[in-house]
Amino acid sequence: IFIAFVINMSGAPMGGAELWGLPKVIIDIFLVTGFAMISFTAQIGQLATQVNASHCMLDYINTYFAVFTFYVAMAVEFSGLMHVSYFIQMCVGWAAGKPIQSNEPPKTGGVLIFFWARVLISAAVLGFALAVTLEGLFTGNTTMWEGVPNAVAVILFFVLMSIVGMFEGMQIAFFAVAKLPKSERGKSKFAMKTCEALFRRDGHNL
């Protein structure tokens, strides 16, 4: 996420910039809002590496920079910055009536306290970030087009966040299903149709 924002800011156009004589509305949609740079980053910098890593796993960490990236990710995980996601996972599992299965032994003592402390810190960080974002949306301090009411901007924010969340979840699920035999991919009508579309032409649609 941080890299996507940095690249977006680095590739943002200067005020009054023109590109190939394109209409202003096209420039606003794809460049001013950052949609083009975010899409470029996601497709080349994120999806391609995730596809490779899903098949190569540890073999994909074959350069010093990859090892450095791995240790940075491990440090972020240890810091607990994103630990609120575990709490959300538990809530979803509880709501679905399916407890989370883990190969790790149950947390006890200091490990349990350390885990929930990081969850609380992560929730506080998330709450602060959400408060700042909503403040910016309600006061109009965003790149939203002029004339769009602030309330509509807030609604669009949550709609787009939901869509991104579903895409991320689907992406993870697709990579997980890729390792399952066809007999274990489920019997749901929509699940079967989705898998059929994904793995058509020897899985090139994935």
TrEMBL record:
Swiss-Prot/TrEMBL keywords: Membrane, Transmembrane, Transmembrane helix
Superkingdom per UniProt: Eukaryota
Pfam families recorded: Silic_transp
Transmembrane spans: 25-44, 64-88, 109-131, 151-178
GO biological process per UniProt: silicic acid import across plasma membrane
Protein name: Silicon transporter
InterPro entries according to UniProt: Silicon_transpt (IPR004693)
